Amino acid sequence: MAGTMTRNTTVYYFLFLLTLPFTLSLTASNATADWLEEGDQFYFQTSLYTVHYSPKDEHNNKQNLINIELQKASQWLGGLALFKNSFGQSSQFAYVGYNWTIPYTQEFMYFKFVGGLMHGYDGEYKDKIPLNQAGVAPAVIPSIGVRYKRVQSEIALFGAAGAMWTIGFNFPITGE
């Protein structure tokens, strides 16, 4: 059963990665959708390092994060994250949020705050996140980041449990 779960998750992540460039090329190059505007961008991000403030043997520090985010020119954003939670369970987080550029950094540094619904904390770990009723819980994640051209890196805080360092690339929406 555990092998099947891992194999299915690997296939799922592989298919996601395989379809991502195609999806981005359809939407980002032409900006034909009414909801996409000049200045918007897609952001693809993955995890580099995770630390738990009170580490336990059962904690997983390899989240295998795959995150796709639409960042609007208005600084609003929305996204979907697929990852392994702190206990190795496949989890998802669908969210919306806002980006604030930190003054006097010439848009190099920013603060991001997102909130949404998290799924995937099951079984004996169901109570490890607050308000996890029916397997879905509200979550908020603040982060601080830096950007240079198309590369972004963030430190995201996940509650009182820990922090994750990420890196990603953005794909700007260009008009014709």
TrEMBL record:
<protein>
    <submittedName>
        <fullName>Sn-glycerol-3-phosphate transporter</fullName>
    </submittedName>
</protein>
<keyword id="KW-0732">Signal</keyword>
<feature type="signal peptide">
    <location>
        <begin position="1"/>
        <end position="33"/>
    </location>
</feature>
